[in-house]
Specification:
α1 (28-40) runs antiparallel to α2, α6 crosses α7 (174-190) and α6 (120-164) crosses α10 (263-285). It is built from 10 helices and no strands. It is globular and about 50 Å long. With 289 residues, it is mainly alpha-helical.
């Protein structure tokens, strides 16, 4: 099936769509796409999505990011042994990818820290969540949109940590993962009335349970547990979620709509970039680190 796509960022009228009928029956890919549409989209948007949906390109962004994170973890755990399979050790603290407050002038660290993880539980949790959420989201919204949301959460996580937890290092992809969760949560709330009630309620409850458990564990490790290792900032979880509820809300809750005419688009985007600008100025002129 092929269709001329409507660009959601322009203000022009609806694009005419031409759907080419194929002689193929309903294969596994189409059945999977129907399941994704039912899970991710309100009823009125499913037909449009199914007309355009295909597995080409595949959800390449979230898969490549996951492979990169796993490769870096294996490098530090196997080829550069630092006894950190379970908990953080000096090996990854000294990594050129890790965000460190005393290395803030190395600007790439505000993004590259997402590739470094503090142990098996840390990376398995992040990979599981981002694959479970990222693949369906990327099938619906494509890689550019999912990548934008994911990286906005990663950047917001490190910048927020540099402000509210300025003396601690930061590793892990939790900022990006929570951006996906935040965007998906807003999607579930906005479209709740248009989804099957039990499905909508299940999505919201599942998200709250996952977030509550993960954040609770992060707080436990930071403030209660006395395990050996360096304290790592947890603020990225919250900041990533907030980024997802702004940038992610724009992309994931407004499928097939003209965003430039939606005031919520401007509120979310301006709010996000205002925070980024403030955080950059803070790091240059005010940071106690």
């Amino acid at each position: 099936m092929a269709a001329e796509e409507d660009n959601p960022f322009n203000g022009e009228g609806e694009a005419e769509e031409t759907v080419e009928e194929t002689s193929e029956g309903c294969g596994w890919c189409e059945r999977f796409q129907r399941s994704v549409a039912k899970w991710m989209l309100p009823e009125h948007a499913r037909d449009i999505y199914l007309e355009r949906a295909n597995c080409c390109p595949p959800p390449i962004f979230i898969i490549l990011i996951s492979i990169g994170e796993l490769a870096v973890f294996i490098y530090y755990a196997v080829w550069k042994p630092q006894k950190q399979w379970i908990t953080l050790d000096k090996g990854i603290l000294n990594s050129p990818l890790t965000y460190r407050p005393d290395k803030r002038e190395e600007a790439w660290r505000f993004i590259s820290y997402m590739f470094v993880h503090a142990g098996v539980e840390h990376i398995l949790g992040n990979l599981t969540l981002q694959l479970l959420l990222g693949i369906p989201l990327e099938l619906v919204h494509k890689g550019i949109e999912v990548g934008t949301v994911y990286l906005s959460g990663v950047l917001a996580g490190s910048l927020a940590s540099s402000i509210f937890d300025p003396l601690h290092a930061l590793v892990g992809a939790s900022g990006g993962v929570y951006a996906l969760i935040g965007g998906y949560f807003m999607n579930a709330l906005v479209n709740f009335k248009e989804m099957i009630p039990l499905l909508g309620a299940f999505r919201i409850v599942a998200i709250l349970l996952i977030v509550g458990t993960d954040v609770g564990f992060a707080l436990y490790r930071r403030f209660i547990s006395h395990e050996v290792g360096h304290a790592v900032s947890f603020v990225a979880h919250i900041a990533g979620g907030m980024a997802g509820m702004t940038v992610g809300f724009v992309f994931f809750s407004n499928y097939n709509q003209k965003l430039l005419k939606d005031p919520k688009f401007w509120v979310c985007i301006v709010g996000y970039f205002a925070f980024i600008l403030f955080a950059v100025m803070f790091n240059i002129f005010l940071s106690p680190a």
